[in-house]
Design goal:
By secondary structure, the chain is α+β, with helices and mostly antiparallel strands. It has helices spanning about 5-20, 40-55, 65-80, and strands at about 85-95, 100-110. It has a two-stranded antiparallel ribbon. Helix 1 runs parallel beside helix 2. The radius of gyration is 20 Å and the shape is elongated.
């Protein structure tokens, strides 16, 4: 999602005012270097990242997808319940949160 300059300035103002009063939690699928796609003004992008990271904690959760793991587990369970009578289908998924890497998924159908 790309913000125009005015939208980015308003967000910066909200972040600045909020920082002075309480904690904030921000979640993103993009690394900080990719935020220039959202905040197209490089100086404003740097100011927003600086404001968010100063005195804060950055928690990287990795690229493992809970939804993909859940789908795989459900498919394996269905296959074991069907006694091996299922056919496995493989799909390749590319997602922004996986840094462009292909993720392999299996689903089972009777």
């Amino acid at each position: 999602m790309e913000l125009d300059r005015r939208g980015a300035e308003l967000l910066f103002q909200v972040l600045t005012e909020r920082e002075e009063k309480n904690s904030m939690a921000i979640a993103s699928n993009e690394s900080f270097s990719a935020w220039t796609k959202t905040f197209t003004d490089p100086r404003l992008c740097a100011a927003i990242v600086d404001r968010l990271t100063f005195g804060g904690n950055i928690i990287e959760t990795g690229t493992d997808s809970y939804r993909l793991a859940h789908t795989k587990a459900r498919a394996e369970q269905a296959q074991s319940l069907a006694g091996g009578r299922t056919r496995a289908y493989r799909a390749t998924i590319r997602c922004a949160g996986c840094a462009g890497r292909a993720v392999s998924a299996r689903s089972s159908r009777s």
